[in-house]
User: Fold this.
Amino acid sequence: MTSLPTLSHRDYTVGWICALPIEMAAARATLDEHHNPLQQNPRDHNTYTLGRIGRHNVVLACLPTGVIGTLSAARVANQMQQTFEGIRFGLMVGIGGGVPSKGNDIRLGDIVVSKPAGQSGGVIQYDFGKTMQEGQFKQTGSLNRPPDVLLTALANLESKHIMEGHELVKDLSEMLRRYPKMASQFARPDIQHDLLYDAEYDHIIEYATCSQCNIGKLMDRKPRPSEDPIIHYGLIASGDQVMRHGATRERLRKKLNVLCFEMEAAGLMDDFPCLVVRGMNIAMVFSGIARCPLQG
Assistant:
């Protein structure tokens, strides 16, 4: 890892936003070079990490500690764009809650990348709308899609993965080689931790884990031929509430055809069009996929 002389604000063309410090750690670990910090307007409250991935200069920012959600993400993105006027597109990378189904076998450690479908630009704000008769919720409005420069790169990346597979395990191994202290939190989870309960089962909320839950409600899923993570492309649901209720998650999956839930992207898409990348409930595997659209 090398450190380069200071560049100008306009030299940075990719804005990368994370919600949590553990996500920011993985983002920083993917940088090929770290750059010197730049002066910024006192009214810009973000703290930036600057560097290079491939041939792209990247600016990283994390949401304030303990202040997550769509509004916080929007504030961080707005201040970033005002300070770094050369940004061409953005990335929102972090942890998400997967929505497994028969059609999409999403497992712990897999990755979901936002991809436009139908009338959606890739991210659906599921808690924005109005309540109709009989308590039915009707979604109103839609969010912008990412810029074409990202969508063409995404199409190329998806076709490459179909033909050749991905190199996530290799990228992760290289990251842990350079930063061995990250190994305890960023290692691939064992398969015995990947438990899926029936969506209608209400878990015991007094416990932080499922150690006391009814194992009779576990879904039977066949082992995969390979333990390597799979990259899924599709719609991501975004809102200001943590999705922890299986029946609600399943209802929204059927209605919106989404692959995962998260809490920040809806605050970005209209004014900071970006690609959203989410690792399923584990902060270790998203770092490799986030590099790919940038390699160019």
The longest helix spans residues 148-164. Helices lie at 21-29, 70-83, 148-164, 168-178, 183-186, 246-256, 286-295.
